[in-house]
Specification:
With about 1000 residues, the chain is an alpha+beta fold. Helices cover about 20% and strands about 20% of the residues. The strands form 11 sheets. Strands 6, 7, 8, 9, 10, 11, 12, 13, 14, 28, 29 and 30 form a 12-stranded mixed beta sheet that branches. An 8-stranded mixed beta sheet has the order 3-4-2-38-39-40-44-45, sandwiched between helices. It has a 6-stranded mixed beta sheet with strand order 22-21-20-37-32-31. A hairpin with a 2-residue loop joins strand 15 and strand 16. The protein starts with a strand and ends in a 22-residue tail after the last strand. The N terminus is likely disordered.
Amino acid sequence: MNKTATIYYESFYINKTKTVNKGENNMSIDKFRFVSPGVQVAEIDQSRRTRPSAEPGPLIIGRFERGPTMRPVKVDSLQELSEIFGDPITGRESGDVSRNGNFSAPSYAAFAANAWLANQGGATILRLVGKQHSQADATLGEAGWNTTSSADGGGGAWGLWIVPSASSKEMTGTLGAIFYTKEHVGVVLSGTLGGSSDVAQAASTYFKFTGGSSANIKALVISGSDTTSSVQTAVENQSFNFNPQSRQFIRKVFNTTPHLTNAATTPTSATSNGEYKYWLGETFEDKVGELIESAGNARPLFAFTAPLVSSSAYYSDHTFQAQPSKTGWVVSQDTSTDHAAYSFTNMQKLFRFVSLEEAEWTQRNLKISIRNIRLPNANSDANAYGSFDVQIRKISDTDARVDAVETYVGCNLNPASPNYIANKIGDQYIEWNDTEKRYRFFGAFPNNSKYIRVEMASEVDEGAITEELVPFGFYGLPKPATVQIQGGGSAGNGDQAFIQDQETSAFVADGVSLSARGSGCIRVNPGGSTANAITASLEWPAPKLVGSASLSSLSDATDRYFGIDLSRQGTSTQLDQSVRDLFKARGAGLSDNNWDTTGNMINSQNFSLDDVSGSEDPNVTQTGFVYVAGSRAAGNSWTAQPSSGTTDLISAGYDKFTMPLYGGFDGLDIQQMEPLVNNTLVSGKTMQNSYEKNTLMRAIDTVADPEIVDLNLLVLPGVTDTGVTDHMINTCERRRDAMAIVDIQYAYTPRHESADPSESGRNGVSGGNTVTAAVNTVRQQGYNSSYAACYYPWVQVRAPITGLPTWVPPSVVALGAMSYSQATQAVWFAPAGFTRGGLSEGRGGLPVVGVSQRLSSKERDSLYENNINPIAQFPAEGIVIFGQKTLQATPSALDRINVRRLMIFIKKRISNIAARLLFEPNVSTTWASFTSQVAPFLDSIKTGFGLDDFRVVLDSTTTTADLIDRNTMYAKIFVKPTKAVEFIAIDFVITNQGASFDD
């Protein structure tokens, strides 16, 4: 007798889909510059085929190169995936990690997304960043990273300060670099003391070096309990400079890979001598070069190192969770006629831009320009407000070759207008509640940009500003206050500038250890009279501002964007790479999600077009326009002239400026090759004492409600911690409309989870990665769920774009095989076997070239008996998925993936049919309407070999009078799923010559 399955609809889920304008129409318009009527053409390749899907598709959780964070985002094609979330990371892209980001481990989720979208449209992406629990343990559960802790035996951040000498006794210096150290490691200089003899080494002591921008400074990385002493042994001794073209450029000389300080992933042989107990963090070579050039390249440099500590606040402390990057507040023009009373801080704040991602990619790669500023027309009600364009530009472009990724034309500050800037770009954001385990949404306008949203000043949003205001400038990024070091050893504002250690002020001219030297002082001749004392003004670096509209690469000076200048010193075409370090989030509590200047922070250069000066008659010259801070208050700026003013400045074409984003932080531990999928950081931990565990669990909680996120598959590739994978399975079981593809332990140990660089050392028998260990672990978990499946072992694929070989967890290609099976046949066909599971033939969505373990037939049997689907490699046939079991232990039709996916498919479709009948009369006509829609749908599945038979019952026997009185319609649907052929028995019978085959 054939078994039947009964489906009882206890509730109906209505999935609401919103179409969002993602700005595609804006992407090409900025390639043109329209001034007068004419025709310009461009070519845009949109021939890549998109495979639309009526089904919700998978929810893929993991790390990506870029894109919105910690919230589900639907993408419909590989092109859209690449545009929003970037390309897969293989782990080989890493170079200068501390500056350019951590790409040291593969982004498995990105591979999974590519595997699915290669054959099927529609996937939902949830990009992970570090998020700590609201009740996180103060020492163990905080997101981010720190090198100062008792566990490390010390450590911290060391600042390298550079002071170009001057003809007078008053000098200006800058922070040139920051070193992050661990385990009582310090960074000191060695050479000639300022005005004295050579010494071996010393901390907090200034040295003199000659050679200008190419001056070779000698630094020693030392290890010991007292880094201030002059008797420590150097574990690294390097000469370096701040010239990016030199072979001894500081970033080429010192270690810039933070995870090399991590003994858990760095071979013991590499750390035994202490070489990798530090890394070079931020460097500000362009600012150093600027000061050297202004002082005179032939003059010597003074330099010293000192711990970046202020009282109990250590700059090395970056323990805070992910936060977005922002621009400074954009401010209006000065509308008063009293230019002498002008104060930038009195200008009306209008809005600022905030990145959709809580990480650093946006600030490292994009900048924002305001252009085409137009003042309101006093004679037109329709143009009572001014207008302007917003450009999101690549950070490396130039004003001569603008490369805008998004442009929003004709924005204004009228909250009632469809062109209101918040309406055109979007202002929505979300906040997570750990108690309710859900997001709360804020903001009135959906986000149309792929990269940013707008945060409006309350006065603007409430319509409380005057109509004449337009964007005219912006606040500079916050930085620690400047410190004045004087001859008597006192440090003005020293506590605010992090230029000292716990004992006393740092800048001294002798080699005596800090504990013994007393106050010390800065003098041309150490030990000389105070009459020879030097006064040094030490600044934290800030980006440059454009000084002049005159630029040789521009044929028209009005094409120049005032505001931030991101070009390298001495050139207008090359990006200053050190700006990426300038825009990083600060440590030691100086960085918060508001980025307002409170406490110890001050704003760097604030900018306004009100300070642009030039000829009053734009016909005289258009190359003389310059920006000089304070010009309006002094009466020298264009807008301060009574005969011209703001209108004429805009009419002259100087109607644009550029600003940076800064302060973004991904909340991840930069000392880990893989901060989240590294299972040693998650296993056995709680959400309170592991931000990594909290991040993963919270991501799953985000999609727990089927009315919020529609999905039919759930994958978190690479995570094998049973606490996390069990949560995935339980979530799918509660939803009852999705299946989890989980990865299991003892299949493979990736490089980022081991200090052994050799694959054989990580994955041999001694490594524990065996079929027996994997089977025993799964058996101990006691799984019995048809809403989950797992596979064994890992596979090696060719990465999209680069083709680099990369080991990925089996969930990646299992997802790809399901995509292929669904696209070429139907969701109820088994995603296994050579036809639909042949990985060597590309059925997994990515080229598969190897397996981490070759399975014997006995090993395949052992895996399949315990509901683990083997991935086998055969000599002739290649690599293939050789099973399609769910993790259900109870024998039934639902212990197979094709049946479970069939039932999810049927339930979703019929739920949608039923949802359209809600609030209709509970009468036989409505029942017939339901049956007339469901029966043909199920019959089409039967015709397509998904069902052997079915029956729909909805009449007075199911919907009784009692149920009608309770406003309930009750249907029963009986289905006989078609089973897949998994076992084939063939008898070959050998007969005698006289046998007849006709019998």
